[in-house]
Amino acid sequence: MNSETLNTLDNYSKNKYKYGFVTDIDNEKPKKGLNEDTIKFISLKKNEPDWMLEWRLKAFSKWKKMKEPKWANLNFPKIDYQDIYYYSAPKGFEKKPKDLSEVDPKLIETYNKLGIPLEEQKVLAGVAVDVVFDSVSVATTYKGELEKLGIIFCSIGEAIQKHPNLIRKYLGSVIPSGDHSFSALNSAVFTDGSFVYIPEGVNCPMELSTYFRINAENTGQFERTLIIADKGSYVSYLEGCTAPKRDDNQLHAANVELIALDDAEIKYSTVQNWYPGDEDGKGGIYNFVTKRGLCAGKNSKISWTQVETGSAITWKYPSCILKGDNSIGEFYSVAITNNFQQADTGTKMTHIGKNTKSKIISKGISLGKSQNTYRGEVSFLRKADKARNYTQCDSLLVGNKCGAHTVPYIDSKNNTAVIEHEASTSKINEDQLYYCRQRGLSHEEAVSLIVNGFCKQVLQELPMEFAVEAQKLVSISLEGSVG
Amino acid sequence: MNIQDNYLKNKKNIFFSENKDIQTYREKLINIFENDRLDKKNNESLKNINLKNFIDFKYKYLIPEETSVINNNQENSYSIVSVNGQCSSFKDDKIEITTIVDEDYNDFSKNNTIEKNDHFVNLNSLFLNSGFKIVIKKNNNIKIKISNIITDDNLTIFQKNNYICEEGSSLNLIEEYENKNNSSSNILNVIKLQKNSQLNHFLIQDNSPNHNLIITTHSSCKKDSTYTQKVYNFSEGYVRNFHYSELIEANSEADLQGIFFLKDNNTSNNKTFVRHLAEDCKSNQVYKGILNGRSKATYFSNTHVDQVAQKTEGYQLSKGILLSDNASYFSKPELKIYADDVKCSHGSTIGPIDENAIFYLRSRGMSKIAATKILISSFINEELSSIDNEQMSEIIQKKLVRYLSNVK
């Protein structure tokens, strides 16, 4: 590091003390673009120890040599990595709408349909709310209760400060920073995310969610989540939000790592409803997410459930590495694409240990002019004796301008392992539709009912309060596209 | 030796090397190989393959001294012996056999869209040194049996055959590949089915361990035509079966089936690709594999349904049995669908022989080996019993018994 950079860095750090962290943030945005200075800036901003900065820089040097993975069936303009702000959270207050009347009425309409309370609507729409807001106090009470049990639930930034041993041991252990270009990018510039540690033998009494975390609002475009379930523990984690989230950011590259030790179980549920772009396919979020769980211990279990309805581009393969003997991996997914949305999503189940089991249920629904792809890999390595997989992926097409694709990769190297895969593609059954219409449902209601039934197998895997909202969300996603 | 030198040195032995258009096309192909513009990771034609062996080969071709024999023993039945990929000309009022000409070459290479990334088809286009064209005339019902013979060791055959079934004709085609020498064949069959025609295509492959066979078929079906293909691979050497089928007019059908029996260090790569480009078409892709020893197999199946291809029915099935610890099977059944009124599905299973079934048979007093053999036979029974040609069925049964005698 030359003296000039040191000076700059020094100035930044002084600024921080002078003006504080939140209020003057707009002046402290780094320049657009990705280079070592940006990373140093982020690291300094977050007051990170040296080893963390080193780790980031290492990932950055890997990223520079990498190309974006090309396998997906997606079509989008080239991403200009130098035209992005890499540190933009939290957003300046002056940008925010002052009250709900300034928020897009379409958005409010959707909130009302989903039955989201007024106060929550404000948070979601980014309205500046008073500090004494219900859910914040709720969050703190929860936090106290969790602390009693020894559960650590905080932002990843806080964890780097307070629990460096756990971070050093597990961060990047499931998704190595050099895995592919998006994971390297995330490792270099991640700004926020959650950290969860469940101690040995603890059954987390409530569903953890980003929503309950005080700084949930800060969740940036490069989110990093790390969940560790120690021996014999259980945790259910909810990510995202059922309501649509408007965001200026175009590129989202999140990394989520799960680690389950002996007899531990992690259930991870996602409802993703980022801004999908308008009816003409303009705008929308590019969502490049890497999610991977490691069943490190014996009898461990990781279960992914996702409902994907938003984003212009979805590139997401929550996967499980079944390393421990008798471990179980599950993947339940509903992906709905409408208008010009493109989704390439699926899972990867790698069976390493003996008696490992995995189950994949994927439902894809394409409407409008969208493209929906299931891409999944199931592989049995040499030592995966008696491993078992069952895969079912069904696609539903509504309209003749969309596409539904299924691309499974199946690889077996063990002669005691059994794999079963089935897939089907069809349109909505005319007889079912006729039956519903006959009973007095409108065409749209009938389609919505049938689609909900089609997804039921997955939706019932969601935690209760999520499931109700997700069902409504499915109906909303279908609106205006049928008939 | 690199591809370019190989080509230039053997130019005199390669078909159409005087034709300028073809020359330019081939230069393009050479460029792809020379500059290593091959996408090794995502290209299905390169999976499980040591490409170097196939690119750095020693080109050797002999023009056969004896011409092939065409017998017309029974009415409507012909048997052809093709020597080093060549076949002498023949003509009667039902069929016509000629060697291929420039036009046939261009016809395929220029309209070659789906196989563009298939590098073995490209190699074939580059080094083409043999081939013939068979036309079945209107409204005839013909049986043809072709035995492929290679006269010398270390030959590299690059063969391209054209089959044209004219309107209303029906062809029963049996191709035998039983070579015992160390040669390698790269064969491309281009099949055109005119209106209301039918082709039943059987391929029996039983080569010795040192013979490589790379066979690719491209069939296109016009209105009301049906193409049925059945591949039986008993080879001990490397075999590649890639079969592409295009349903270009309404109400046509493609049925691609295959069974492979692998053992020892053998490898087999298989692919079926059906493109639905018109309404009311049906397709079916079924491959079954039995893998023993350290053998490896891949099977890619792909159903592509175009936006206009409403009322499509497309089915895929892939089943594999692994008999040993060291065998491995990779399958990728793919559906790409752009039309909504379709019925498409695929199923894929890989696993060992059902232990409960073995237990059942053993409890009835059968030895473990006998039980295993019975279960393997029943696994493929559906395909074997559907062969309506008695002679064929006998040949295949014999080969199956031979394969099973090695199962322990």
Rounded radius of gyration of chain B (Å)? 21 Å
What is the average per-residue confidence, as pLDDT of chain A, rounded to a whole number? 78
Question: Low-confidence segments of chain A, ≥5 residues, pLDDT <50?
Answer: 8-27, 89-94, 126-138, 212-219
Given helix and strand content, the structural type of chain B is: alpha/beta
Shape field of chain B: globular
What is the ordering of alpha helices and beta strands of chain B? HHHEEEEHHEEEEEEEEEEEEEEEEHHHH
Walkthrough of the structure:
- The complex is a heterodimer of chains A (483) and B (408).
- Chain A has 483 residues and is an alpha/beta fold.
- Chain A has one domain (100-478).
- Chain A is 29% helix and 28% strand.
- Chain A contains 12 helices and 20 strands.
- Chain A has an 8-stranded parallel sheet, covered by helices on one side. In chain A, strands 9-11-14-17-15-12 form a 6-stranded parallel β-barrel.
- In chain A, 48% of the residues are buried.
- Mean pLDDT of chain A is 78; it is low at 8-27, 89-94, 126-138 and 212-219.
- Chain B has 408 residues and is of the alpha/beta class.
- Chain B has 2 domains: 3-364, no CATH class; 365-408, no CATH class.
- Chain B has 9 helices and 20 strands.
- In chain B, strand 1 and strand 2 (77-83) form a beta hairpin.
- In chain B, helix 6 (355-363) crosses helix 7 (368-379).
- Chain B starts with a helix and ends with a helix.
- The interface between A and B is medium-sized, with 35 and 34 residues.
